[in-house]
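Example record for the data management plan.
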Amino acid sequence: MKNLAVARRYAKALLLIGKEDGQTDSYRKELSGFADLMEREDALNQAVTNPLYESSGRRNVLQAVIDNLDISKTMKSFLLLLFDKGRIGFIGSIDDFYQKVQDDENVTFIKSKVASITEDKEGNPVLHGVDTEGYHRYDNPHDLCVLAVGMEPSVAKDSFPVDVTINDNGFIEADEANGGIFAAGCSSDALDVNRAVQSATASALRAIQVVNRVAGTEG
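Corresponding structural encoding:
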């Protein structure tokens, strides 16, 4: 059960990244291709996941393999992140969950701000808000609506120790002015545990993307 929860967490983080950059289908193909490769090539699977081998050697094998694959930098960073977090062995389960969510017509990902919740004639909750990607207003009925527990930052906006962009609620905003600082979890918004972990994973991937981009420019 714990392994399944971990797999879902990383799959959701990749889905969020794909939703933001419009590459969900591309990541789906890349993730599936690598998962199939690991399942098909037992020697490779052992060389990357077997703890009897030194971690540095196993990472070098993984790096060499993904460098020869036709996959995006984001996917390469994602796979290395899985290895560094000791989750590369869950690649099959992560792929399974990613595929199921993509195939399920009843599952949609909407990055938005909910302004209010009302009730329709059948007693179902209706969410009123704005899609923050296309900035389209919506009024969507649902069978169930789960609200996160409210929270507020522990550090007052005026006494924040680092010079970063803070919104009116005291959370760190994603802003180029923040430089190399990437807010994650509850420092970026009022999030529950699962969304905070997903946010942290997504922020780590963004940071890796920036490092790779800078390294490529300087090289």
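Summary line stored alongside the record: The two ends are 44 Å apart (CA to CA).
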